[in-house]
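Re: the request from the purification team.
They wanted to know what the chain is likely to look like in 3D before they choose a buffer screen. I agreed to run a prediction and write the result into the notebook, where they can find it.
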Amino acid sequence: MISALFAFLHFLAVFGIFAAVFLQWRTMSRTPTFAEARRIQASDRVYGMLAIVVLVVGFLRVYHFEKGKAFYAANPFFQAKLMLFLGVGLLSIYPTIRFLKWRVRTKQGLAPVLAANEYKSIVAVLGIELLLLLATALCASLMARGVGS
């Protein structure tokens, strides 16, 4: 039963990460309103918290539940999944830094001001993150079925 609960928590966090990034991507505009900026900032905080949950719960599952660390260590799709997730995390640094810089204005109740190239870069990075998250889910599915072992 505990294994199933950890699996559920892991999946819930993964879906939450996808939802948070998707919300940022859909909400982002060339001229975000104050409300949109606050929504994006809040979803970025949620994304960060859920990423920690995914990693902690995921590694607990590898070492204490499921198929055991030997299965995962030998599976190339597990390794690819980790590398893709790391890639998403590294890519997310740029938007997160931008969103943090908005705090000066949003704390004053003002909307952020973006340069055109900044908007395009943030939207592109968020789109790439979404694609990498989908690739991560594919690797997880293949790995769980023992493909590559």
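For the purification team: Residues 2-144 form one domain.
Please add any questions underneath this entry.
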